[in-house]
Amino acid sequence: MVTAAWNDIFKSKIGSKGLKIGVDIFPSGQVMGALLHELIPREFADTHPTLWRPEIAATDKDIVSITDDKFSIELKTSSDPSQIPGNKSYAQTTTDGKKLKDGYYLVVNYEKFEPGKLPGIMKIRFGWLDHGDGGTNGISRCPFFAALTMMTAGITAGMTAGALGADAITHRFLAFGGQTRIVEADGKTSWSFPESSRDGQMLANGNILIALSKSDKRPHGAAVEVTTDGKIVWEFAGTQSEVNTAQRLANGNTMVAEAGDKPRILEVDAKGAIVHETPIKSQTSNHHMESRMTRVLPNGNYLVPQLLDKVVREYAPNGDIVWEAKTPEEPKDSWPFTAIRLDNGNTLVNCTHGNMVVEFDAKGTIVWKLTNADFDKPLLNDPCGAQRLPNGNTMICSYAIGDGGTKLVEVTHEKKVVWTFVEKDGPGIHEVQVLATDGKPLTERPMR
């Protein structure tokens, strides 16, 4: 809610000249705070109109819980890096005819404008204050608020401080798609590459391998290895219609999958020379719909999702098909996009326009299925990329962007949503690699 309101500020145009904040005008911290005070309550009300409304009367808090007023929230903002400067009105004894001073508080700290840089949200904190908790300086000195620092938004009706506490999950991840970037645990982009992409991975040397989309600059697509300062240190230029996949192998070679009249899997050495080729047995009338996230398995075979053929196949290096599983006929266009061979031998598959994720056993029988019917709102919208995390949960990319701007969703095997990445601006995420969870780097081989 908070980040959505903040982003809306920069979409606004003011006056007859249509002046844009952050482009034409650069308001003071106090003005930005006033805008947040107006927009955040409306974001709550727009998202959950039966649960929340903005204040109307003098006795109302800033964000009013329609169903139970004890859950209503007072909003405080500041451009100070961490404090809400001393204000003796916080958490004090109530004055007749005025709003209650104790209760739930939502506290937002944001950056001021600096030359050449748009400001961002620094802290989001939420908790309860009784009228005696704040002392003479209110929230700024309350140890409860000092300890409860939230880097994400998303408060819902009845959510308590415990539900938003220190156990909240955070992820740092590498995203591929219309934007190629690294997103930190606070949701901010820390690195980006100025070309759209289809696949890739973070390498052990800290460089990033990227399968680049076809473009005027790269009419056949490409696979590149880039440093974090954007220098290309290795490149394979595509020779057909598209390069859909790139995976660095243990021997130092790179596997790429090409789409075209002769769909194929290639292994390319450090000098860019093709050292092995395996044909993909696919329809060729639609190059774009031939294959997607091909992966080399530990046994040396290749696992290939074939979209328009609606089948996932395991190929031996000589091109023999040694296993396959067909995706369901319904929903229509349940095209396989990502296929992950799990430790138990099953295969997890994202079915794009079917808005479905299925798990096949070794016989090709579906033993687990996830759809939007398992959620209270449609989070899956063209699920393309995926990753099975070390804790057994599954991270799913919603490439066409799910409800409320959901681009990533983490679910348990029991189909419980435990984390989402919500961003109302920009393109969806085509493929993802989670790099760290709760600040701890993921060092195991990524299953994606």
User: What is the overall number of helices?
Assistant: 3
SSE-based structural type: mainly beta
Beta-strand share of residues: 35-45%
Major beta sheet summary: 5 strands, antiparallel
Shape: globular
Strand order of the largest sheet: 10-9-8-31-32
Mean pLDDT, rounded to whole units?
87
What is Rg?
25 Å
Helix content: under 10%
Number of strands: 32
Low-confidence stretches: 85-94, 133-166
Distance between the termini: 30 Å
Write up this protein.
It is a single chain. 8% of the residues lie in helices and 39% in strands. It has 3 helices and 32 strands. The protein has helices spanning 2-11, 29-47, 143-147, and strands spanning 13-14, 19-20, 52-54, 63-65, 73-78, 103-110, 121-129, 171-177, 180-183, 189-193, 197-202, 208-212, 222-226, 232-237, 242-248, 254-259, 264-268, 274-279, 295-296, 302-306, 311-315, 321-326, 336-341, 347-351, 356-360, 366-371, 383-388, 394-402, 406-411, 417-422, 429-437, 440-441. Strands 10-9-8-31-32 form a 5-stranded antiparallel beta sheet, with no helix packed on it. Strands 11-12-13-14 form a 4-stranded antiparallel beta sheet, with no helix packed on it. A 4-stranded antiparallel beta sheet has the order 15-16-17-18, with no helix packed on it. Strand 31 (429-437) and strand 32 (440-441) form a beta hairpin. The longest helix has 19 residues, at 29-47. The radius of gyration is 25 Å and the shape is globular.
